[in-house]
Every structure is written in structure tokens, then in C-alpha cells.
Amino acid sequence: MKLTAELKKPEAAAADLMTVKNALESSRELRLMLESPIISADKKKDVLSAIFTKKIGEAVRDYLLEIISKGRAQYLHQILVQYFELRDDSMGIVRVAVQTPVEFSAKQKKDLEKHLEAFTGKKVAVAFSLDASIKGGFIARVGDTVLDGSIRRRLELLKSALSEGGLKN
Amino acid sequence: MADVRPDEITAILRKQLAGFEKEIDVYDVGTVLQVGDGIARVYGLSKVMASELVEFPNDVFGMVLNLEEDNVGCMLFGDDTKIKEGDTVRRTKRVVSMPVGEAMLGRVINPLGQPLDGRGAIKTEKFLPLERKALGVIQRQPVKQPLQTGIKAVDGMIPIGRGQRELIIGDRQTGKTAIAIDAIINQKYTHTEKAKKEGVRPVYCIYVACGQKASTVAQVVTKLEEEGAMEYTTVIAANASDPAPMQFIAPYAGATLGEFFRDSGRDALVVYDDLSKQAAAYRQVSLLLRRPPGREAYPGDVFYLHSRLLERASKLSEAEGGGSLTALPIIETQASDVSAYIPTNVISITDGQIYLLPNLFNAGIRPAIDVGISVSRVGGNAQVKGMKKVAGRLRLDLAQYRELEAFSKFGSDLDKATQQQLRRGARLIEILKQGQYVPMPVEKQIIIIYLGTTGKLDELALNEIARFEHELFEMMDIKHNDLLEALALKGELTDELRNRVDAIAKEFLATFKPATA
Fold first, then answer.
1. Residues with Cβ < 8 Å from B93, sequence gap 6 or more?
2. Is A95 on the interface with B (CB under 8 A)?
3. What does the pLDDT look like over B5-29, one tens digit per residue?
4. Alpha-carbon gap, residue B194 to B187, rounded angstroms
5. B165: nearest Cα among B383, B328, B358
6. Residues on chain A touching B20 (C-beta within 8 angstroms)
7. Mind listing the pLDDT tens digit for each residue in A106-145?
8. Number of neighbours of residue B256 by Cβ within 10 angstroms
9. How far is CA B438 from the centre of its chain?
10. What's the predicted TM-score (pTM) here?
């Protein structure tokens, strides 16, 4: 269902779908409207057309309208999330969330990406965010696996190592 | 006082921290979806293994039980109030395991191997998983060495061999724990020089208290300490107040520690006190994990729960070192109902059972063993020769006595032979009575049972028998120690020894004065 959209111009379609996904994520009202069982499918279609007609390609718009007419409007967001996961998979991209205490320089980011690529063996798409509580270093999360090079974690390990050492003596 | 130099501190710290690597720590995580009632459901942890140990915040550990499509069900070994929804769960990449080693002897620990007795850390080098597959047929050999419990009724008629699984079953307050504790205390002699000379190998003991009151456990530990039995014993305690998952894994921890001794070619005895409470704890965890309930609301695999535990008891072949792990599981019945689910299960798994009856207990027959329905399916091969000889007669006499006992209630017009049998039976029952915490060496057991079954005590009054036995052995300890030693060494009443015992008994009977009322 999601891959059909890729047939002609996959890049453009993906960009369009991303626009929709972002819109859904940024607007709570839009999400609620789509999930609401009270609003009729036709009404939902009208709203979507009004919002997106100018912004996205026809194929994608028709696809969205088709989903709604099948009564699947409330799953639209999930479908999109799933689509991007499949797309990443097929393109060999892993998404990595990296937390750093301070903003990394462009070079640091490049280096980190290179290392992460070596670690995962795939292309990485890194999302950086700031978290002062990790004190230093960085934490990278690839799926369920965490690469923890933070000062906070090392302090935790140091604490347990010291307390165990204390018991042994 | 000497000054502490800063560089000294640095040096020590450096030494302590050697091996503390400056590397990136890689681990797998998940997120707590739901927590409560001692279990947690976790999202993520996609590579986690079944029964793997996982770490929650605040030093709470959990064990993975359910691997489902989109979540992982864990049971918690700690306080579930310390965990919140959304907390991060970390894999440890090891299956739930415990430290094992000689250092465990004399200690009271919890099922994860952490000390509970406040005597500091336990220095061990090895870790073994709690759940281990039982050994196959090739690695085993038949049970053939006796494990003396020091209880006349047990060693005589329901003998236990090393590597056997003998169930102790009975209502509350019938002395189940007492039998197990006596058996542990009696292993003290196996650690002496004398036992070494006789070729008896030392037995290391493990007492698993599962769902017991903390006060009861404290009492048991104190008693074992008093008797000097803690030197070769480990107590694994998951008290009634501990989380159900702890009670559930406690017997496995006992088996793991026992296997450590067994696999190093030694003999071990492990008491599971008691498995009905473990089954109840497992039922709780299972129901909370939404596994479907079966009979008596126990989950479908409650039989496997006990069978995989008890299968781990074994006698290893000589090629494997010849070690053994003997199991004494305890089951508490409700109103002597042995046809309930858990009792029937465990009865069918074990190599025999010791039944304890409340009415016998109340009638003053203690230990309250019903020798009619108690059996040992393999222990006979392991019995000391001399004991086997005298006990065969004992079993027969008691069976006849029980049959006649019912008749005797009708009146006194019984013929002489019947009266004689009743007389004999009553005396044998009296002989089998024994106080708590006074295990008797096997050579003395042989002598008293020999005297009883050959009718030497028929002329004594019933209430004199206990005193007679006591005084006889007191005298023999002083005057005829060589005879006892010879009997212990040979393990058999040879003609020569028998003649001597006859003579001694005759002489002693002549001088034995009934107490003047």
C-alpha cells in the first residue's frame, strides 16, 4: 500500500508525505478531526484537499483521499510513520538520536556520523538534541541499542565500581 | 596518628579503578509501559533473552518471563513502587544467575546470592545460571550410597540414598521441617575424621526457605548454629514478605548451589521448604502476566515447574566425578488431602515420600511418620547392609501389628500368638519414637532395631523403653565403644558382633531397674 506511491517519483512522493506527516504532527486539531468518528469522510476529504492541494503532488493527494474514503482516516498518521520506517529500511538508513550537553560543531557532528556509520554498517540519519544533564560526552540511540559515552554514565559506573570495591576490602 | 598523604590516596584510588575503562558503554534499553503487582511490561528490549536479568532504575532487577509481540513481561525482584512508567530498562545480557562457591557455607543469602546475615560480602569466583537443564541418562548412575538422616523410622524403613528425591509431606505442624533439619544436623558426622575412616563422604547442605515466616527461618538458623551445622550449610531465604518472584526462584537457587557441589565431585543435600508455597508464588506471577489459569488456578506448566527442579537431583557417574545432589522437597497439605493438585504432582515426580499424619503427632508418636504409606522407591539399594537385614523384619512386624491393632480393640480374648504380636508391635512403635534434634548414628539404630525385632525388649514396660534405650547406649558408649566402631566400619551385624550384642543386652536387661513409681 505504501510502496505503490514510490512507483513514479519516489523522492517527490516521499517529500509530499513528509509534508503531510509534519502537518499532522504539528496540528493537534487536524489529528483530532481525522480521528473523530462524527465528522463524515466527505468532510474530511474536503479539508485535506483544501490544505494540501497546492502543496503536494496529485498522486499523493489521491492516495490520502482514498484512505479516507475507505474509512481509515484515523490510521493515517500510523501509516505514514510506518511508511518512513520501511523507506529507511529499504534505503539502508538508520535513524539515530544523539543527545549532547552542548551544541556540537559541524566537524564534530561529521566525525560522530562517520563513527556511527562504522558501528551500524548502514547510513545514518542523526537527530541531535541538547541535554545538559549528561554533563559531557554524548549518548546515541540506535533502535533499542544505546551507545553511552556520557560523563553521567561513567560517573554511575564509577560509583558502583567503588562501592563494590569497598565491600571487597 | 600518621598523616595520610594525598598521593597515597591517589595511588589507592588508581589501583581500585584499574580496569575501569574509558570506553563507550553499549547497552540495549527498553521503556516501562506498565508496572504494578511485582511485574512490569516493557516496550523495546528487542534482543532480550527469555529469563534474562534486566536492570531497572533504583537498583531494582527483573527477570524476563514473557516475550510477546510488542512487549516484554518481566517480574521484579525488588520494590515495584520505585519504578515509574516510562523508566528506562537496561539489558544485562546474562540469564538470571547467582554466585556459587565454598564461601557460601555458613551464610544466609537471598536467592540472588546476596547475603542477608549482615556478615559482609561473599567472596566467590563463579556464577551459575539459576535455571539449568537437568543432566541426561549418560551422566548418571543408580543411587547406591546411603544418606543417613539419623532418624530411626526413616533410616530403617524409608531409607534415602544420595542423589534421591524424597518428598516430605504432611499437614501444618506435623514436623516436616523438623525431619529435614534433623537430616541436616545429622550430616555433621560426615564431616568428621571418623566418617572419613568409614568411607563416608561429607555432605554439604542447603536449606531453602521459601515463603516461610522470617521468625521461623531465624529459629532454624539459630538451631543449626547451635548444633554446629552451619559450618557446612547454606540457608537460602525468600521469606513470606519477599516479592513472589523471589519465592519462585528460591528453590532453583538452592539447586544451583547444590549442583556446584555435585559437579565438583562432592555430595550435597538440599531441602526445599516448601514447594507448595513456591507453586503459589508462581501462580501469582503467572496470573499477573495473564497466563491462562488451569486447575486450582495454577498455570499449565506448574508440573514442569517442579519436575525440572527435582530432576536436577542426581547421582553422577564416576566419569563425571561421582558427586550427588539429594533433594528433600517439602509439601504442606490441607487437611491431609494428598489428592490436591500440587501434592499429587510432586508425589509422582519424587522417588518416594514420607507421610506425616497429625493424628499420629497428637498421639505422641513423633516423628509422626505413617510407615504404612511412606515409601522410598530407590533408597533400599542404598541402605547399609546390616540395617537392611534388621529393618526387613521391622517392616513386616509393624504391618502385622497394624492389621491386628484394629481387632484388639474388640476385647482381650485373643490367643497367645496374637497377643505376642501386639506386644511386639507396640514396642517397635515405641522404639521408632525419637526426640527432635537428637539424630542417632546408624550403628546404634541397627542395635536397637535388632533388639526390638528379635523380641529382647518384649518384657519391658512400654514407658520404660525410651529410658532403656538411652541408658543402654550411654553404657555402650563407655564400655563397648569398640563394638560400635566395628559395626559402623563393617555396616553389618556379623555373627560375632551379634553374639556380643546379645550378651550385652542380656546383661544390661538383668541390671536394668524399672523406675519405682
1. B28, B52
2. no
3. 788 878 777 776 665 555 678 889 9
4. 13
5. B328
6. 157-158, 161
7. 888 888 888 888 888 888 888 888 888 888 888 888 888 8
8. 27
9. 17
10. 0.86
